[in-house]
Specification:
By secondary structure, the protein is α+β, with helices and mostly antiparallel strands. It is about 35% helix and about 20% strand. It is built from 16 helices and 23 strands. The strands form seven sheets. A seven-stranded mixed sheet has the order 17-18-16-15-21-22-23. Strands 3-2-1-5-14-13 form a six-stranded mixed sheet, with helices on both faces. A two-stranded antiparallel ribbon has the order 4-7. The protein starts with a strand and ends in an 8-residue tail after the last helix. The relative contact order is 0.13. InterPro entries: ATPase_NBD (IPR043129), Carb_kinase_FGGY (IPR000577), Carb_kinase_FGGY_CS (IPR018483), FGGY_C (IPR018485), FGGY_N (IPR018484), Glycerol_kin (IPR005999). It holds the Pfam family FGGY_C. Belongs to the FGGY kinase family.
Length: about 500
């Protein structure tokens, strides 16, 4: 057995490689951002080649920073921004178009057509998802119809859809793209497949009816494998950039990876990740609980030889991105300022920020909602807007928690949290107060990468059981709902938040 396990964490804004030891502690890490492209309003794209180049760079840099050889890695796991969609040439490995990102809204009208044509209930029942341009299915369809190689100055004259029918153009989410480049295998894991709006999460296979409706050829689809795969997805090339043959043995979509990294292995365990968006998952075990309150039913994870585990998920599109927006418009210079500014006022003075920049996710599901600020007066200062933005993050989480408790029939008294925003103690206190629940932050807050490492390491036998992983989980700090510093009548404020959300809904009615 080698000494360590590595994890690629390919996120919305950048790519990280982390190396973990047997105790789940970070041994090495490197990170690189990539460019965000917004070619038209509501469109978001990434360059897959840039992401692959960055992935190679951070892997080499992280190992070098700890004076490690890649041969010291027992396994590599992958976790990724989900739903982001890539098509590439099966022969050259070259993308036929930039990646269409999960935040992208270009297929809003197509989703509305699916609803109008009676597909809503079928999609919900089959995939567990709410029909939305967030998911991969309509992105694949758009790419097949619009990724003109000549227009994009590619050299291939053939039609993309015709070539996809022959298996010469491949589809994948970012996990597939990276595993393909690492090993040559065209695979995805069951969690990422469950986010495409093309996969039957109950039967465990691609759904022929949805493939036919969206005209997605089966020949272009990746093979679906367990999240922790004892048969391995493949190995890195010993003559390649790492110079070693290392098993690539695990993959999970980023939010499922965080659930795994937080050791939420039992039904009833819940976590919330505060990243670009905010994503709360509640493990429901072997039961795929159908939501009546606007949540998603999704695959939590699968280990080789074990049945699929399911989760309820509440997807909030904008949380950390709201903090970035504050900086973009000059209200703050650095995210660390937000806590100080928010503490400097007793309340928002009636101001509410609804950061629906790319629509509203769970439990509202309004693709045409847009960001709003309501309740401003001449006395409104930037401190009030900053505090209102932090409160919006907490309110959006309560929206999801209340829906989750209603669907699952449980009380969520403790919530494990992770992601960049939870370094903000004020936000954690605020979240505890708004929810009336205990907030628990682990020592290793990069739980997404840790989850991918755990999945890969379990597959190779580096860790023998999930009990070993539970023993690794260590609390950095817990925040109780009655903790000093964020007192308030949260029920009344939350009710008023609901009024603000209604004003943000269905705003972009003139978008084409």
């Amino acid at each position: 057995m080698s000494a360590y396990v590595g994890a690629i964490d390919q996120g919305t804004t950048g790519t990280r490689f982390m190396v973990f030891d047997h105790d789940g502690r970070v041994v090495a890490s490197a990170y690189e951002t990539h460019e965000q492209s917004y070619p038209e309003p509501g469109w978001v794209e990434h360059d897959p080649v840039e992401i692959w180049e960055n992935t190679q760079r951070v892997m080499v840099d992280a190992l070098a920073s700890a004076d490690l050889d890649a041969a010291a890695l027992d396994a590599i796991g992958v976790t990724n921004q989900r739903e982001t969609t890539v098509l590439w040439d099966a022969h050259t490995g070259e993308p036929v178009y930039d990646a269409v990102v999960w935040q992208d809204r270009r297929t809003t009208e197509r989703v509305e057509e699916l609803d109008a044509d009676g597909w809503h209930d079928y999609i919900r029942a089959t995939t567990g998802l709410e029909p939305d341009s967030y998911f991969s299915g309509t992105k694949v369809e758009w790419l097949l119809d619009n990724a003109d190689p000549i227009k994009l100055q590619r050299t291939r004259p053939e039609d993309v859809r015709d070539r996809a029918e022959d298996g010469d153009v491949l589809f994948g989410t970012m996990d597939s793209w990276l595993v393909y480049n690492l090993t040559g295998a065209h695979v995805t894991d069951v969690t990422n497949a469950s986010r495409t709006m093309l996969y039957d999460i109950h039967a465990g296979e691609w759904d022929d009816d949805l493939l036919a409706e969206l005209r997605v050829p089966g020949a272009m689809l990746p093979e679906v494998r367990p999240s922790s795969d004892a048969d391995y997805y493949g190995h890195t090339d010993p003559d390649g950039f790492l110079g070693a043959r290392v098993p690539v043995a695990g993959a999970l979509g980023d939010q499922q990876a965080a659930l795994f990294g937080q050791t939420c292995f039992a039904a009833g365990d819940a976590k919330n990740t505060y990243g670009t968006g905010s994503f709360m998952l509640l493990n429901t075990g072997a039961e795929a609980v159908e939501s009546d309150h606007g949540l998603l039913t999704t695959v939590a994870f699968q280990r080789s030889g074990d049945p699929v585990q399911y989760a309820l998920e509440g997807s909030v599109f904008v949380t950390g991105a709201a903090i970035e927006w504050l900086a973009d418009v000059g209200l703050i210079e650095d995210a660390r300022e937000t806590a100080t500014l928010a503490r400097s006022v007793d309340s928002t003075d009636g101001v509410y920020v609804v950061p629906a920049f790319t629509g509203l996710g769970a439990p509202h599901w309004d693709q045409r909602a847009r960001g709003t600020i309501v309740g401003m007066t001449r006395g409104t200062r930037r401190e009030h807007v900053v505090r209102a933005t932090l409160e919006a993050i907490a309110y959006q989480t309560r929206d999801v928690v209340e829906a989750m408790e209603a669907d699952a029939g449980v009380d969520i008294d403790e919530l494990r949290v992770d992601g960049g925003a939870v370094k903000n103690n004020f936000l954690c206190r605020l979240q505890a107060g708004v929810l009336g629940s205990r907030i628990v932050r682990p020592e290793v807050d990069e739980t997404t990468a840790l989850g991918a490492a755990y999945a890969a390491g379990l597959a190779t036998g580096y860790w023998e059981s999930v009990e070993e992983l539970r023993a690794n989980w260590r609390v950095d700090r817990a925040f109780d709902p009655d903790e000093d510093g964020v007192d308030g009548d949260w029920d009344a404020r939350y009710d008023r938040w609901g009024d603000a959300v209604e004003r943000a809904k269905h705003w972009a009615v003139e978008e084409s």
